[in-house]
């Protein structure tokens, strides 16, 4: 069966740099705390009105398409991964299709947060392998800066995230030993609420002890979106950081080993691991656990923060642009995040 290969890759980072010290204007935090706990020095925020999750995705896609040597009209399927879409619905896929004046092709939106890009890549891989499509555009893009709590109340979450986009074009590989060797997807919804944004939503507190069923009609009518939710900061992401950390450092090595073993390789064969840029401490822990050398792991969270679905394609693109990814190299992509969901992909460049 034909394999799929990354034929073009691109990234877009908004120009506005926000340092840790810049955040002191809004919240009680410090450069020292942020760097020590996360490794982050700075992140980029999108222009408030001129850039959206979709427009950043478009910019990354233009580069990926050009590098693949094709035009937007050659794309025959779009997969767009994000947790902060322009609209609650419709998704960013159709907005990108419109903005890039593409044909009336399918556009699929993926909502798997930090592992969103790898889930999207795995779906694209299946369509290429079966011969359904020849040029699939996969995008991961996030405009986190619009949906964070910039008061001290939200500092444990807000300091971590940054904006940006990454994109690849997937095509059938022309060479025998080239392309995506395998993808591995997992989930465990047991802890869905410990890294989540609950509102607005249709949950009606169904999953919590305080059920909305016990409220009166007028209160229930307000529950999709209410003043109280805004006042209490319930419209922002919630994260139990230590619990996420504990699970991440187990599942990252597991899913990386799974990918290597499925293809008869071990960590010594790996040219480069591109982990989702969740937190530098998580990446360092994973590196240590797998006994990988510094040159085998690529990190750039120091300069971009955690860009969720965009972090893997941004890191892969940057590594490729620096000449760290060359034809024939064995590359592992891995991610873990909200859901929990986690995933890996092993590819021969
Ligand atoms: N600045 C200063 N102090 C802070 C900040 C901040 N930005 N945020 C929290 N604190 C304080 C807390 O209020 C707390 O104070 P207290 O002891 O007086 O109550 C103290 O720091 C410790 O808080 P913890 O949340 O226990 O801090 P921890 O050492 O666990 O670090 C962090 C928090 C960085 C979020 C860590 O738990 C972590 O990295 N977890 C992994 C989560 C992660 O990577 N998430 C990324 C998104 S998900 C993903 O991509 C996988």
Helix and strand arrangement:
Layout: E1 4-12, E2 16-19, H1 20-23, H2 31-38, E3 42-45, H3 53-67, E4 77-81, H4 92-99, E5 106-110, H5 116-129, E6 136-142, H6 155-158, E7 164-172, E8 179-187, E9 195-196, H7 217-221, H8 227-231, E10 238-239, H9 241-262, E11 272-275, H10 280-290, H11 301-304, H12 311-321, E12 330-337, E13 341-348
Parallel strand pairs: 4-5, 4-6, 11-12
Antiparallel strand pairs: 1-7, 2-3, 6-7, 8-13, 9-10, 12-13
The chain binds acetyl coenzyme *A.
Acetyl coenzyme *A (ACO) binds next to helix 2, helix 6, helix 9 and strand 12.
Word description of this protein:
The radius of gyration is 20 Å and the shape is globular. The relative contact order is 0.19. A hairpin with a 3-residue loop joins strand 12 and strand 13. By secondary structure, the protein is an alpha/beta fold. Helices cover 32% and strands 22% of the residues. The protein contains 12 helices and 13 strands. The structure holds acetyl coenzyme *A (ACO). Acetyl coenzyme *A (ACO) binds next to helix 2, helix 6, helix 9 and strand 12. Residues 29, 33-34, 37-38, 114, 155-156, 159-160, 195, 239, 241-242, 244-245, 248, 278-279, 282, 306, 336-337 line the site of acetyl coenzyme *A.
